Amino acid sequence: MRLLGIDYGEKRIGLALSDETFSLAFPHTVILNSKNVVEEIKKVCNENSVSGIVIGDSRDDKGKENEIMIEVRGFAKALEEETGLPVFFEQEYLTSVEAHRISFFEQGRQRGKDIDASAATLILQRYLDREKNKSNTQ
Hints:
Layout lengths: L1 E6 L4 E7 L6 E8 L4 H11 L2 E8 L10 H16 L3 E5 L3 H13 L6 H24 L1
Helix pairs in contact: 1-2, 3-4
């Protein structure tokens, strides 16, 4: 089983997958945000034995939800209903900025849409780390 990480965007959606031990997150792909996006994600979940979905929780610098969170919440509900999988939210503050920085240092350039999958990876890794830390303190 794996977890799927999602960086939701109005145009593109970045996807990442965890390893089977829920320790590490890896970029998977970027898909266009279209009418069929929930079906596409359901297919990814089925093909990769996904047991849960982690979506970025978008907030401003004061901790209040951004306008896009209305869309994200509806998207999350549709995913939950269509896939039957639990959906979790993880703070995504500055993940795209961090993904750009990492990409620049690794590649010497920015790679456009690949940034969305990298941002999804950062969101998912934050969730995995937080969950691991919770179980280590209990």
